[in-house]
Amino acid sequence: MCYTGSMTQTQRKKKFNITGPCIRGRDYMVDTSAKIETIVHDYIEEGDYFVINRGRQYGKTTTLELLYQRLKDTHIVLDFSFEGVGTDMFKDEYTFYEGLRLLFFDKLLDQGSDYTSVFENETPEKYPNRDFRKRIEELCGTSPKPVILFIDEIDVAPDFDAFFNFLGMLRDKFIERSKRNTPTFQSVIFAGVTDLQKLKSRIRPESEHTIRSPWNIAVPFTVDMRFAPPEIVTMLADYEADRISEGNPTGMDQMAIAERIYYYTSGYPFMVSAICKAIDETGKPWTIEAVDETAKNFVAERNTLFGSLVANLQRDSEFASVAKNLVLDGVIINNNGNNPSIERGLILNIFTEDEHQNVTVSNKVYETRIANYFIAQMLTKPNWMSEKSSEAQSHFIENGELNLKFILQRFNVFMKSEYRDRDSKFIEREARLVFLAFLKPIINGQGNYAIEPETRNFQRMDIVVFFQGKEYVLELKIWHGEKHNDNAINQLIEYLKTRDTKEGYLLSFASNKTSPKESQVIEQDGYTIYEEVVAYNEND
Description:
Layout: E1 15-16, E2 27-28, H1 33-44, E3 49-53, H2 60-71, E4 76-81, H3 93-110, H4 128-142, E5 147-152, H5 161-180, E6 187-192, E7 200-202, E8 210-212, H6 229-245, H7 254-265, H8 269-282, H9 288-299, H10 304-315, H11 317-329, E9 333-334, H12 340-347, E10 351-353, E11 358-361, H13 364-379, H14 387-390, E12 397-398, E13 401-402, H15 404-418, H16 424-443, E14 447-451, E15 460-467, E16 470-479, H17 482-499, E17 503-511, E18 520-524, E19 527-536
Helix pairs in contact: 1-2, 6-7, 7-9, 8-9, 10-11, 10-13, 11-13, 13-16
């Protein structure tokens, strides 16, 4: 838990919080003050209505709390959450607006506002929507401070007509403000996973005819809520300052640790805090190796974030196909907005898209989890690995180091033994998954791997294997002739330079029916490349 009632704030030692909103001074937090100022300046002061529409555990509630703290002295901030109110509140218009009235009244009372009387009397059963319009006009028209509405955890609400009609009322008030300067909220912010701008409601339950959400007045919320490495450093610096004051400094290289955490998480807020929390609570030294080990353990955890990912992979074959294509097959997928599975992945921040609408998986944690899902399916197939293929496993690790050259040789034997009758289409489509399924049990418990998005395409994929504090860079390549192979060697060497290592591995899949090729050791520009060739169709 983040906070216990038996301890005062001064008594409680700060922690990395992953179970609720982070509170400044109580939890170790990334300094997002620049983001908060951007939201205030670019959205709220402009009078915009918008939705902080992000995946689970993405810092939405914390952001709303920071906005409240930033604005409470200059604005009336009506902030509350639909979490815990119960679905009964949405059963009809009267019940819904009476519930809102009580929420508004309590918030004004908590803030010591002089305007609680506006929401003091019970909502009339007849025309409750119209009554609430008048109350909003009275509050916003008489208050000397601008009034802002924040509603968190909206995901329970869109299924109900009462909420849908509430959105319509807010939209009407927004338009009236523009046309006639009618008093209303300066800004309205909703937060949740649901994309309100794509919400639809049936006119009649039995009708197939639908109308789109009235929330088309909302401006797109484009603030990047991921934590960049310099932002992660602000949290680590706060933590280190406390350790120094306790006489127990870690001596960590804060930027190096931040960049390594970002390498795995791409700044996903929950993942960043979870890795930091695990390192702190397990007493590991704050080193790159500790981040690698912690990331490996984190990927294997069971939590609501990964539960949602696996549920989508299991119940939505199209989503699973997209995920596999992105992670393992190197397919470039462009989002045209017509694929609901891609849209769901984007809303949940499992997927992300660039300025050209090309879709990728949002971070290495998700990528590894997705790859592991398909690997697990492969490993459960009957006769996955015969006794003959696994007899050499005792030599895969020697003197605490991964014998990757030998692993590639044994994988070659395995492929010839178990997949010799498969056609080239199978090899090109499934070879990388088969190799990862072969590799994972070998490094399981002692190492992990990451698939590099910069080098992933249909013909080529770079994999970095982390094992006992050492990195092994491996390229998987579908071989199509000597010219293409020269490019592969040059590309791999360039990538080795970025990883600061002189040794690399190349696993080539070659159809020796048309392009004979053999395994070799390549020495070039001071780099050593061990190439293992898996030849198929050589006996056709």
